[in-house]
Amino acid sequence: MENHCGTSRIAGCSFSVHPMSDKFVDYIKAGLNEVDSSKVWMKTDDVTTTVRGRMEHVFEVTEAILLHIAKTGVHVAFQGTFSIGCPGDSSGDVHMDESEERLNKPQFKEIEQRIAAKFSLYPMGGGDYMDTIYRQIEAMKEKGVEVTPAHYSTRLDGDTRDIFTGLQDVFRETEASGSSHTVMTVTVSANSPSHKDDRP
Ligand SMILES: Cc1ncc(C[n+]2csc(CCO)c2C)c(N)n1
User: I need a labelling partner for 65 at 20 to 30 A (CA). Which of 12, 42, 87, 128 fits?
Assistant: First the structure.
C-alpha cells in the first residue's frame, strides 16, 4: 500500500442509515444489497458501511442507498463522513480504474424525495479554510436548494438529487482549490413526521 499525503485521489464515505421502523434490518439490508455498488470498494459492519473509489461513484452509491430506503416512505436518518486525500488511504486502488458511467442513475432519476440535511466542510491543509467554506456555502445557493445558516453546519432543504449533486460539487471544488485533505459530514432526515407541507 502506497500512502501519499494529499496526492491520493481515492474518495470515501463512512455512513449509516437508521430507518425508524421495527423492520430496520430489512430496510438496511435491502438498501445495501439492491443498490449496484460494483464500482466501489464496500464494507459493512455493525456501526457503518464504508464505500471507497472514484468520487462520483461514492456519492452515487450513498445517495442511491438513502433513496432506496426513503422511497418506501419510512422515516430514515442518514449520517455520512466523506473524505478525500486522507494520508492513510491507499492510492492505486483497483476501483479507481472504473469508468465514469454511473450504475444507479436510471433507477433513481425519476424519484422525487425531499430531504432536510445539514453539512459541515473541513478543508484541511490548504490555507484559508474559512474562505473556502464561505465560498462553498455561497455556491450551494446556486444549486436549487434552500440554504440556511446553522451552528457548526449549514442546513439544506430540497430534492435529494439537487442536494447530493450540490454536495459533490462542493467536495470536488474544495479539493480543486488546494485542500490536501477534505472531510465533509452530512446528516439527512427523510420522511420525518416533523416535515409539514414540505417544510420542516
Ligand atoms: C449503511 C449502514 N451500514 C451499517 C449499519 C449498521 N447496522 C445496523 S443494523 C444492521 C443490519 C443488521 O446487521 C447494520 C448493518 C447501518 N445502520 N447503516
Answer: 87
Neighbours of 2 (CB within 10 A): 8
Rounded to two decimals, the pTM is 0.91
Which residues are annotated binding-site positions for thiamine?
17, 49
Q: Give the N- to C-terminal CA distance of the chain in Å, as an integer.
A: 46
Select from 40, 38, 76, 72 the least CA-distant residue to 55: 40
Residues with CB under 6 A from ligand 1: 15-18, 25, 28, 44, 46-49
For residue range 110-139, list pLDDT tens digits in order.
889 999 999 999 999 987 999 999 999 999
Say which DSSP state 95 is in: G
Could you give the ipTM of this predicted complex?
A: 0.89
Amino acid identity at 17: V
Q: Which residue has the cell 492513510?
A: 88
